Amino acid sequence: MKKNKTSLYILLFSIHGLIRSNNVEMGRDADTGGQVKYVLELAHALANRPEVAQVDLFTRWIQDRNLSRDYSVEIEPISSKARIVRIPCGGGKYIRKELLWPHMDEYVDKTLKFLKKEPLEPNIFHGHYADGGYVAMTLASMFGAPFVFTGHSLGQNKRQKLMESGMTSEDINKKFHMNRRLEVEEKVLTCADLVISSTRQEITNQYGLYKNKDCPKFIVNPPGLELDRFFPYYEEQIGKIKDESYRQAKVAILNELHRFFMNPDKPLILALNRPEKRKNIAALIQAFGENKELQAMANLAVFLGIRRDISEMEENEKGVLTEALLLMDKYDLYGKMACPKKHDFTFEVPELYRITAESKGVFVNPAMTEPFGLTLLEAGACGAPIVATNDGGPVDIIGNCKNGILVDVLDPGNINVAIKKIIADEELWKQFSTNGINNVRKHYAWGAHIDRYLEAIIKLTRASTKTPLTVKAATPVAKRLIKLNKIIVADIDNTLIGDADSLNEFMALLRKHHHDIGFAVATGRTIESAIDHLTEHNVDPPDIFISSIGSQIYYEGLKAPDIGWATHINQKWQKERIKKLLASLDFLVPQKNDFEGQFKISYFMDPNENHIKKIHDLLTTNRCHYNLIYSHGAFLDILPQRASKGKAIRYISYKWGIPLENFLVCGDSGNDEEMLKGDPKGVVVGNYCAELEKLKGKRGIYFANEKYAAGILEGIRHYKFLGE
Questions:
Q1: Is residue 620 part of a domain?
Q2: First to last CA, the chain
Q3: Could you report the average pLDDT of every consecutive run of 10 residues in the chain (724 residues)?
Q4: Which of helix, strand or coil describes residue 299?
Q5: Are 456 and 507 in a shared domain?
Q6: Residue 633: enclosing H or E segment and its boundaries?
Q7: Are 162 and 298 members of one domain?
Q8: Quick check: 140 and 650 in contact, CB under 8 A?
Q9: DSSP state letters, 172-197
Q10: Which is the most buried residue in 250, 601, 665, 716, by most CB within 10 A?
């Protein structure tokens, strides 16, 4: 892997999987909205710049008979310098994004495998949405590279709006796994080097709902628009359009709409949404259905993604579509309302906006919360005035473009009043239409977006404390480790040590396979304490010490500290400040110095969830960056945010080119939990603490019957780790 000196290798992460470079299935379900369009166009636009060597858009590999085979292509070109890279996790079947959380560590591990084979070293990890943010944050930490985040949709704001609409907190968490999402979003804000927001309102009113809102640096950089596709409606009227595909799309869309309407020449009210509850399409149908005057003035067309059989859809999408059709029936809107089953994104969607404009109609976005609203830009660029929610991105868009009316969409009456005002006033319609066409081009072109993006990330790469990951083969430690392809990692207390006979047997086995197998310990002890304790029990010196719960890495004992790892985790670490803050909590009892180190603060603490909450609140309020680990129902450790046993193992895997599945990782307590998960082969020894009980049944984690080192030996036999 080579470092990039003059050009950038940028990694974008949009995990859900329903992304392809052609025939994008916009609106297929709740995962295929504006984020898909944005990341594809961002990758393409970045790759056109000379400062960029390569852009890879990472998503999930899917092999599902209900979906196109396109989603199972491992690497798909977008352009000569941009690719879609599909990484598997959680099997092949499509899983909606809310259910992907348990598989994110697997995704991280398999992305590392891919990157190990690449010729360039990544410069930027850019996560999109909370799941992509988690993956990008974790990988950036391992590589010591800058981490950039774009939320697209934020959990706190979504939760607030759903509760206002009548959903309970319990229902929201059950449907959307909201608690996990909010936890990740808070963590992302503490770790991000830069957060890119579409609007100033998003920073103030949406990110402002988070405890860690003041941690990252923000920039406002609204998305760009493909103006060669979203051109004004009158260009067709004067014969400027040469691409026959647009004419064919227009005929197809008009034929589809005419199937529904008794009087197709009326102005068109258009809505184009994913079938998602917060998109609030029911309010628009209700507004139209309850106002006979509006029905006499216009037709309503509602496009709710792509569907075949509603009965086979996910519950969330099924519920939205069923409600829309029931409302259509309730208000007897047959002949006045269209609800087509599909549309082509590339040609038919732009034509829908132009048809709306030609009819002197209006585009409506009734979403309860809208982080940005790309459809508003598309409609405005084509000349259709807009009516939109007064929340989120639409506030900035209409503020810049002066092309529509903002309304409180929770009251359907507000929607029909705004629509009627625009349709009934020819001069107002013309003013909004012209403003949209001109001002979208002025404020939302891709060139300006990419200029701002590259300026920001180039500053980050220059200021980065990126860890040097190259190995100097001249050192003794390198001569050994570059030849190894397998490593056994064991916690010391109550895992490796506890039974002398089985420990001696394990040591004999390691000596026998010394040329093939590396030996590492991962412990909560400091390096000095670990060496003394191992010496006392006649343990041969390990090749690698991961000490102080992953906050230190040493080779050959104290002779060779891993300076790169220390540099990597030192970022934003303020040990003395954290100790001073925690001194105010009387339920914390400091441990002896031999359990601390440069990157570790240790206490005794009785089990109490409220105590842990108080610690989090105190440290995050004071903008501290940290990682908290509680184990054995007694030991509390505070580390740098980039440090842990699991992260240290992944760092070693990458640095020394040893695949994670070639690590056998053994532990007994909560501070071993993270390193046991993912691709390494996990072994939990028989005398484990109850806090690891939750790992039973997890992929790649074996619970041994034997205790201490005998459990390690049992795990070696179980996995046939030595080829036996």
A1: no
A2: 34
A3: 73 93 76 81 94 97 93 96 95 91 84 82 94 90 85 87 84 89 94 91 89 93 86 75 77 89 95 84 93 95 76 74 90 92 77 95 91 88 95 88 94 94 96 96 89 93 53 50 88 96 96 93 90 94 92 81 79 91 93 74 90 93 91 88 91 86 94 89 95 90 96 96 82
A4: strand
A5: no
A6: none
A7: no
A8: no
A9: HHHHH-HHHHHHHHHHHHHH-SEEEE
A10: 665
CB 14 within 8 A of CB 30: no
Q: Same domain for 458 and 559?
A: no
Q: What range defines the domain where residue 332 resides?
A: 234-442
Q: Give the strand order in the sheet containing 362-365.
A: 337-338, 299-303, 268-272, 362-365, 386-389, 404-407
Indicate yes or no: pTM above 0.85: no
- Scanning the structure block, which residue is given the tokens 């103030």? 204
Give backbone dihedrals phi and psi of 108, rounded to 5 degrees, phi first: -60, -50
Whole-angstrom CA distances from 539 to 307, 534, 542, 721 are: 64, 5, 8, 21
Residues 6+ apart with CB under 8 A from 250: 236, 351, 354, 355
Q: Determine the Cα–Cα distance for residues 21 and 318; give it in Å rounded to an integer.
A: 27
How does DSSP assign 638-673, residue by residue?
EE-TT--HHHHHHHHHHHHT--GGGEEEEE-SGGGH
CA 384 to chain centroid, in Å, comes to: 33
Q: Going along 5-109, which residue ranges are E strands?
A: 8-13, 52-60, 75-79, 82-87
- Closest C-alpha to 674, from 144, 141, 236, 119: 141
Asked if residue 500 belongs to a domain, the reply is: yes
- Domain count of the fold of the chain: 3
What is the spatial distance between Cα 428 and Cα 48, in angstroms, rounded to a whole number? 40
Give whole-number Cα distances, 721 to 112, 431, 667, 690, 698, in Å: 22, 73, 17, 26, 19
* 152: CATH: 3.40.50.2000
SS3 sequence of 446-501: HHHHHHHHHHHHHHHHHHCCCCCCCCCCCCHHHHHHCCCCEEEEECCECCCECCHH
As beta bridge partners, residue 499 has none
CA distances from 248 to 44, 159, 252, 344, 357 (A): 26, 42, 6, 12, 18
Residue in this structure with the two tokens 């396979």, named with its chain if needed:
513
Q: Do 423 and 511 share a structural domain?
A: no
Cα distance between residue 473 and residue 652, in whole Å? 15
Give CA–CA dist 531/17, Å, rounded.
47
Cα separation, 288 vs 297, in Å, equals 10
Beta bridge partners of residue 219, listed in sequence order: 196
Q: Give CA–CA dist 406/491, Å, rounded.
A: 59
Rounded-to-integer distance, Cα 126 and Cα 461, Å:
13
Q: Is the same domain home to 86 and 181?
A: yes
Residue 12 resides in a domain: yes
* Residue 335 resides in a domain: yes
Amino acid present at 274? R
Residue found under tokens 């343990």: 539
In this structure, the answer to whether residues 255 and 379 fall within a common structural domain is yes
Together in a domain, 452 and 488: no
